[in-house]
Design brief:
The protein is about 30% helix and about 20% strand. The chain has about 325 residues and is of the alpha/beta class. The protein has a domain of about 110 residues. β10 and β11 form a beta hairpin. α1 crosses α3, α4 crosses α6 and α10 runs parallel beside α11. It is elongated. The C terminus is likely disordered.
Length: about 325
């Protein structure tokens, strides 16, 4: 008696790729099963660039792809014809769930090879492109996208962003300039600003998310206290903050009132679970009420005992004297 197809496919899930390649040559039925598994998750790098060409030439294989990742570093020489093939391959992957593209930014046109292509299942996108017309056109075809990471978007896009774009976006990572345009009116709850200055004005834009912002990772060029006080008012439901400052805080690190003022601003955020402010870490437990379990400590009396004291910052984000 022949095994049910579902059972065969389940067994094949536990086979290494080398064995699946053998299975694919045994019969037309098993070939289809093996190909669905072999091409479900595809990762393309320097030594496997031809995989994208195969997917371009064989659309039936590209339709199996759910997770596609490609990395073409600056040291790799690739002809323009390769990017045309990559564009064709991507246009065939209409069942994608996750897409990660790290190629030279000038090749963003690979996203617009097939004007009629739609990617209704795509949820996660990472791209090394600016938010140009090609990327915007692609995003208009991803109505279910929830996570967007843009590595090279250092400037606001020139093209207008339609208000209907990305209606389910919940997490954004990229430049603050782009975040100011994408976040308002969209349900973004997690923000990771990889470039740009977090100012009070920027906070006012980010606070216009249609969902409560719970996670924020950003850098400011100013003292952290004014930003924290602004966040406390604009984003009262914040749970996790990582705020780095390029401002010289060396003297302030040993200033007890400075540390206390930071703590007071954080305590005012009633839903906060963790906060990392320029390496100073606070944590709260919220299971039975809100209890502070970790905070930076500075033994103030040590400063009075010696002029040559050496201070060290350990891996647990605590300042101590030795």
């Amino acid at each position: 008696m022949a095994l049910p197809l579902e059972l065969i496919e389940h067994i094949c899930l536990y086979l290494p790729n080398s064995d699946l390649q053998v299975v694919a040559t045994s019969s037309s039925l098993l070939c289809a099963v093996a190909q669905r598994i072999l091409f479900k998750d595809v990762s393309v790098a320097r030594r496997s660039l031809l995989v994208a060409v195969t997917l371009a030439n064989k659309p039936h294989l590209a339709r199996h792809v759910r997770d596609f990742k490609i990395v073409v570093g600056p040291s790799v020489t690739v002809l323009p014809s390769y990017y045309r093939a990559l564009a064709t391959a991507l246009s065939h992957m209409r069942e994608l769930v996750s897409l990660s593209i790290s190629v030279p930014a000038q090749y963003s046109s690979i996203l617009s090879a097939a004007p009629d292509a739609v990617f209704p299942r795509l949820r996660h996108l990472q791209a090394s492109f600016t938010l140009d017309s090609h990327l915007l056109a692609f995003l208009s075809k991803t109505p279910g996208l929830t996570t967007l990471t843009l590595d090279q978007s250092l400037h606001a896009p020139r093209s207008e962003i339609p208000p209907t774009l990305l209606p389910h976006l919940s997490s954004f990572s990229g430049a603050s300039q782009v975040a100011q345009l994408l976040v308002p009116g969209r349900p973004v709850s997690s923000l990771y600003l990889t470039s740009g200055d977090l100012t009070e004005e920027v906070v006012s834009f980010l606070a216009q998310s249609s969902a409560a912002v719970s996670t924020l990772d950003a850098t400011t060029t100013s003292l952290p206290l004014p930003i924290l006080e602004t966040l406390s008012e604009a984003m009262p439901l914040l749970e996790n903050i990582r705020l780095t400052t390029t401002y010289n805080l060396w003297d302030e690190f040993f200033n007890t009132p400075f540390i206390q003022n930071i703590k007071n601003a954080l305590v005012a955020m009633n839903h906060l679970k963790s906060a990392n402010v320029s390496g100073m870490l606070w944590k709260w437990l919220t299971k039975d009420g809100r209890v502070l379990t970790n905070e930076p400590h500075i033994p103030s009396q040590a400063l009075d005992n010696t002029d040559d004291a050496e201070w060290t910052y350990d891996n647990h984000n605590t300042y101590y004297h030795h």
